[in-house]
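During the second half of the funding period, the structural biology subgroup turned its attention to how the target accommodates small molecules. The most pressing case was S-adenosylmethionine, which had performed well in the primary screen but for which no bound structure existed. We therefore specified the complex as follows and requested a full 3D prediction, including the ligand pose.
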Amino acid sequence: MSVKDILDKEDFSKENLITLLQSSGEDRLLLFTRSGKIKADNIGNKVWFRGLIEFSNVCGKDCLYCGIRKGNKNLTRYNLSDEEIIEAAKFAWKNRYGSIALQSGELESPDFTERVEKLLNKIKELSRGELGITLSVGEQKPEVYKRWFDAGAHRYLLRVEATNEKLYNKIHPLNSKHSFRKRMDCLKSLQDTGYQTGTGVMIGLPYQTLDDLAGDLLFMKDFNIDMCGMGPYIEHADTPLIEVKETLLPLQERFDLTLKMIAIIRIMMKDINIVAATALQAIDPIGREKAVKIGANIIMPNITPGKYRDSYKLYDNKPCTDDSAEDCQSCLEARVSLADCDVVYGEWGDSKHYENRRQASGYRLQENPDA
Ligand code: SAM
């Protein structure tokens, strides 16, 4: 079936998705034009910011692709103080970013649970409830997710990384700390708790096929995600997967495949929030803007204090590690206008999909000041 005929269908089969992922020339343009139009019609030519605070690179896990894995000894570990995190959140609020995203390595402990809970309470208080908060701190018990939800976090990003269990097991150590089932259970628990639930995968992983990527897209639709964060896999010299770097697609192809994945998920799920991942910019200086043009509507300017940024290196050549939060904002604003989009200030910019899902099934929702 031709790309044009596929794009006219309501639902895509796995075979259709593979054809779309392989598209080139005119067909590729057709795909991007369609996804860009769907974004404009359903979301508008808009981008919302989530001020990203990478508050610690201390991690208890050993994912084979990740630069901050526990086993990497060539890294200075850091943990922002509560005051530094609060200051960064204040910066976001004063600059009218609607939301922040708190991200860190993965720790499961009563101390960590309590610390995050207290931080959520403080950030809600300092911003008089105005700052929306996304968490991205990995796998936790359902009761922990619930405590944080009750303390004011209302979105959670947990990338599934790969939905083919065999592939998942090739990029993680084979033990109970890195279990595919647990990842899936956590995603379900987030959704059941009432979070706007986001997931995604890395694109261009070693051993990954187009069949895998098509499966990832079908999973996201079937799971009914509210938010999507996908980015290219970029190798890191101090990780075990560096050994198979010769088998990887060229960076430019990983980049192009990521744009296609974003375009396709926008067509499949018209009203979700889609992040233009920072890793896109590590390959192409205007990578995030290209993603915004063809379907993404969320950008995460890094507002982590500059001195720590170099130590949150998930992959080689991570961009903007020596910028300040102010540099990041003005640079991004100019860039977003390149993609003919406007940054919306002072709004949460929640996933419309979540709102529609909630109305259909009576999910709980944090009070949204945009509404
Ligand atoms: N620990 C939390 C979790 O697992 O959700 C959040 C932090 S984790 C470092 C954030 C994301 O970084 C992961 O979900 C993964 O997709 C991405 N990441 C890690 N290593 C990467 C690499 N080499 N290339 C691209 N993305 C990478």
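Two results from this model are relevant to the next phase. The beta strands are 46-56, 99-104, 132-136, 155-157, 196-199, 202-203, 227-232, 273-276, 298-299, 342-344. The CA atoms of residues 56 and 104 lie 5 Å apart.
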